Fold this protein.
Amino acid sequence: MIDQIKKPPSRKKLWIILILLLIVVVAVSVFTYQKKNSLEISYREVRVTRENVAVTILATGTVQPENRLEIKPPIAGRIEKVLVEEGKKVRKGQILAWMSSTERAALLDAARALGAEELKKWEDNYKPTPIFAPINGTIILRNVESGQTFTNVDSVFVMSDRLTVKAQVDETDIAQVRLKQQATIALDAYPENNIKAYVDQIAFDAKTVNNVTTYIVDVLPQDTPDFMRSGMTANVTFLVTAKENILTVPSEALRVRDSKYVVMVKDIKGKKPREIPVQVGITDGKRTEIIEGLVEGETILVAEIKAPTDGPPQNRNPFSPARYRRNTR
């Protein structure tokens, strides 16, 4: 019997073998890379301590007069003398300026041309008209000077009874804002000065800007400082609730298991930490109140995830050509 001559493998079989080998190499490389570069978890010890925790809401706003009043003269004429400056506090009924009607101004100008005696005669017989402050408040704008003429539609003074901050509070936070609630105002121009204030009014109508719905909340300073000016930008902090000397832990130490909060503690018998349930209270985002489950001074663990540090960061990819670059030094 004549032995059959063995035929070499076909090209198709060779390609299949090469593809299979390539798949095996890739799988081994990926597995090795993931194992080497897997995240490392370490634990940091912290103690349960007593702290003061305050829950607040932040908002931005603008300083504006609570009531802005423009003072317009009843008739056209000319200002003879201005008695107040901008920023001056005045009382209701106080004289702000003296004015002459158009007729009186014309008569005085004609008498002045005839001499001082004739001028005095008409000044005594034809008295000027006073401009009174209609409310108690502050002069925030003075639009006239002595000798200036005006019409009865021109505002000669602008007053405000008191300055307030119009804060824009997001609709998700408005439910936690209430009348007479304590707040703190910090002006961008004077960030080092915190002004104690309270909520005076909450708008019933919302405003929507760039798809964000907000409510205007009037925040009134308890004592308005002299440096506070209309138009200033302000940051307002609303105090929602606060507790003093309560047990707290870092908020990052808390985990949720089956809709319950837990923290990790050392397990004496095992190497891995164990979880214990706790009851939490208020939080400011950084610290969280512990109502039940821990005692003061107890040590808990906070998980910290670290990326592997072996090798240069740019060579993390196992298929990167740089990974196999030789050192020529």
In short: The first strand starts at residue 40 and ends at 47.
